Fold this sequence. Notes:
14% of the residues lie in helices and 30% in strands. The chain is an alpha+beta fold. It folds into two domains: 6-213, Probable tRNA modification gtpase trme, domain 1 (Gyrase A, domain 2, 2-Layer Sandwich); 263-337, Elongation Factor Tu (Ef-tu), domain 3, CATH 2.40.30. It has a six-stranded antiparallel barrel. A five-stranded mixed sheet has the order 10-12-9-3-13. It has a five-stranded antiparallel sheet with strand order 5-6-7-4-8, covered by helices on one side.
Amino acid sequence: MPLPSPLLGRPGAVEGSGADAGVAAHYGDPLPEQRRLESGRAVADLSHRGVVTVTGPDRLSWLNSLSTQLLLGLAPGESTEALFLNVQGRIEHDCRVVDDGTTTWLLVEGFEAAPLAAWLDSMRFMLRVEVADASADWDVIGAAAEIPQLAGRTVWRDPWPGVVPGGYSYSGAEHPAAGRVWFEYLVPAAELEAAVEGLPLAGTMAVEALRIAAWRPRLGLETDDKAIPHELDLLRTAVHLTKGCYKGQETVARVHNLGHPPRRLVFLHLDGSLHTLPAAGSDVVLGEKTVGRITSAALHHEAGPIALAIIKRNVDPAAALVVVDGEERYAAAQEAIVAPDAGQVVGRQQGFLRHR
Length: 356
């Protein structure tokens, strides 16, 4: 949909920035909005996201051959996640996938839609598929519960943090987001305002705080041009380890079976005494040595200031870290999302990593 969103005209709306420009960061009450969103009493305008459609009888077998996920036999209404990698196994696109029986919908970041559609179109060859960037015609509404008012719409349900068939968990004990639900509803752009009529709204600040608390990586924030799925625990929802060939599979298999990811995603509890948040890209420091960078930060209504960061694999999980943003220094306690010994599963006798 052309930005900015019409919902920015609602009372109190303050536009987001960066990856969330074009929609409301909040509507005047960020923390109450976050509580309402988490409890299923509000919805979020995600009309800045991208939507790519694939139609035709060969669509699922074709997407299966290109992506990390097993898409053969994906039932109408069933949701999954799939990555498109380069030949080095680095993440190029992260797609939220749902098929309605005639169309496969790929929900992506706004900046992904046009290049993803163009690349897919170039890969069609003689197959019976059609690809379109439908971002101008379709919008996305996010919610942490099923919304009766939106029943009957095509909806993607996030599999995170489950370990889907063929997937593998690189985190340790029970996931802190176990039981989490997140839905993304598709609505025609012309119907966005009518679709949310009477529903309380929450901004992207609320969406991001809940995402970070769930340890959920996001393309363009937790990823860079070197990111591989293992570093972000994405093998749990976005990779099928035995599905067959696709671009980048050799790296996925080699790191998983024989090696270790060079970096790992961590969750950070930040010192809240400064009453500010570090910017994305801020250095994560151990002693005098920079060991990583902040990728996302938010103020959570219960946990306070929290962040995700990418750090070097061999950093001690018990080490106290410091985040440096200009003159500001934030003490940071880490929780391992990706275990330091992740990977190298061939010959592993025991351990807490899990697969399905």
